Amino acid sequence: MSRSEFAEFLIARRAQLQPEDVGLPAGRRRRTPGLRREEVAALAGVSADYLARLEQGRDTNPSTAVLAALAEALRLNEIEKHHFGKLALGLEQKASCPASGQAREQVSETIQAVIDALQPTPALVLGRWLNLLAGNPSFRAFAEPLGMFDAEAHGNFAIYVFAHPAARQTFLNWSDAADMAASSLRAAATRFPDDPSVEAVVTALNRYPEFERRWREHRLTDFRSLVLKIQHPARGAVEVEVETLDPAADQTVMVWLVDRRQARTPGLRLVNE
User: Fold this and answer.
1) Which end of the chain has fewer CB atoms < 10 Å from its terminal CB, N or C?
2) pTM for the whole thing?
3) What is the mean pLDDT of each run of 10 residues along the chain (273 residues)?
């Protein structure tokens, strides 16, 4: 994991906090958004100079106690704390990271058999940078009218969400879908820092302000549990529940059980290989 991402996370989170968020008086108008470095340092019980070294990448060995104190000072939730810990762990293990490098983009016979067996329930497989790797006939029948297989989507779920002109009409809660896609890519970039394909997708999406803002802010969401509301040309308004069992593998099997209110079943289930 690159040192700069750990530093960027610290800076981004500090910028997003307001004095009143941590029980400090607002005071006079500030030249830059967020808390001052000295304020975060005081809340965490470390020196401002030490926090500066962390933010500048000059110190790469924070203790567990310091990480816990910073997480508390920055008011991180459980998802953010987990990500923060992985970034810190990566400072020492980047060179020997076993998950680095190019991903395999072939779906195994076992996983293909799983999604075939789920027919007529729509099911698909996503790669680590959210490429659509495989799907059964029911998924294609459901997703094709939404434009997910159009040239503008480039066979990628995240590109569809941010770049396809129909996406904002497709997802009635588009912001949730955007958070899910950005968070999934952030998790992939953190776990697979040397994969050029992950970097290429992020670079391509950075031209879209809504993605660039989420990426710059290190926006994280619990994409393991989410309901997507979809306006389907043939089915009308439907709901799909998202559940991720383990978001750490190369490929993700995604099962779409459409409209949980009518089917009375769980919705979209993400199961990693």
Assistant:
1) C
2) 0.81
3) 76 92 78 88 95 90 92 92 86 51 74 90 87 92 95 95 96 95 90 87 96 92 81 92 61 73 46 48
